[in-house]
Amino acid sequence: MRFTSLVIELIRARPRLIVWIAVLLQAAMWLFVALVFYRSPPGTLATLLAFGREYQVGTDLGPPLPIWLADIAYRAAGGHMLGVYVLAQLCEIATFIALYHLARAVVGSQQAVLAVLLTMTVLAFSSPALDFGPLVLARPLWALLLLHSWQIIGQRRGNAWFAWSIEAGLLLLTTPAAIFLLLLIVAFAVSTAGGRRTLRGLDPLFALIVVAVLALPYAVWLMRAETLTLPALPQGSELNARALHAAWLLGGLVLGAAAIPALTFLNTGLFAGKGEEPPIIYRPPVAPLARNFVYFFAVAPALGAVLISGLLGLESVVGGAGVVLLMSGLAVVVAAGDLIAMRRARMLRMVWAAAVVAPAIGVVLAVLLMPWTGTNEIATSMPGRAIADFFDESFARRTNQRLRAVAGETQLASLITLHSGRPHLFIDDDPARTPWMNQTKFRETGGVVVWRASDTAGTPPPEILKRFPGIVPEVPRAFEWLVTGRQQLLRIGWAIVRPKGT
């Protein structure tokens, strides 16, 4: 009897089980990393939560849905970041499960597993795992939108229109790239005979009404926003630089998906053993419309996002790499043919596992080793809870009132706003960003002003002295990093602005 690995047999017999095991193990891995090695939120997540506390319809961070959901998850977890980390991983799980259902409708259950596993390697390298925000929330919404778009266009299932309209409206409330993504769906529908048939009924009109109702409050805020600025189009002399920038962005996307060509190359006949009879993963024939659907949404979002980002000079790809590369794994599986031979399955498993685990290992090594090799700060190594507790308690002891607002350096101030009292964040160098607080309100309620201390006296930076004249700096407070290494202690200068009447 010819031996076949257990994984291959499970892919054949229980494909959905393999998908759930893979995505749950990946989610558990990232939650373990966060709980053990993160003492502060990654990226700008603390600022996102500070904005979410205010429940504004719109801010300069973008549409409100991810900001609101982050605050709800934070409160539901009792003021612990675990709730936000779990929310980020739920988005990751929902993305892959929706992609599995879409792939199963196109290439069958068995090859759908391969599509999901390939896509996991892409998203592991190219998109954030724990830094919840628009880029993370947009992924499951885009995956669900593609799934129901295929059900409408390819399977003629009219009952999918309602779900499609809800997802489209939520995507508009999640990322500014939603308009670009929705236009791609409309372009595909108009360019195909099956898509044009679906647009002739009343269902698209009802869906449009639902989308408009969901997006109306944010659309009104956009029209009224006085601080809203659009990126300027490049001048003729800037075109070369913008084209080079677009090339770099495209190269970054290709690099993020590098594990797919690596796994494909390792599965070629060059690495097949002599006389080996590799197991076969089969599928039913793929319809031409389904093939075009997969190829279009694997290529058009990436190229369109790179073109827009390069033209406008944006630092990152519009929509995020996790969105524009979502269909890359399925596209490779569709192109591979009806029969996919799994040569050297053990080696393929090892390379795939290394590609999925490598980003988490990189985070752990950076936290443990970088403090010993240089002076670069790691934001997640800041003792966020200790910082927030100290300044909240210090303000309460001095004024006999709870802390209501924090100003100064945005990163440090955002960490303090995560205290259980949830004080307001005041971005004093750009007050328009925080319309719920201004200089007058800050003086009335009182608060703490923080900055990085550059000396033992805690002298405030000149720009802070200019905005808060007359503040008396306190003795700087030193905090230890998670791993101190060769770094100096984190010294925070601070001053109290007493509430009026105290």
UniProtKB/TrEMBL annotation:
It is found in: Cell membrane. The chain crosses the membrane at residues 17-38, 82-100, 112-130, 170-193, 205-223, 243-272, 293-312, 318-339, 351-372. Residues 63-221 form the Glycosyltransferase RgtA/B/C/D-like domain. It holds the Pfam family PMT_2. Keywords: Cell membrane, Glycosyltransferase, Membrane, Transferase, Transmembrane, Transmembrane helix. One of its GO terms (biological process) is lipopolysaccharide biosynthetic process. One of its GO terms (molecular function) is pentosyltransferase activity. It is a multi-pass membrane protein. The keyword Transmembrane applies. Its main location: membrane. GO terms for cellular component: plasma membrane. PANTHER family: BLL5595 PROTEIN (PTHR33908:SF9), MANNOSYLTRANSFERASE YKCB-RELATED (PTHR33908). This is Dolichyl-phosphate-mannose-protein mannosyltransferase. The lineage of its organism: Bacteria, Pseudomonadati, Pseudomonadota, Alphaproteobacteria, Hyphomicrobiales.
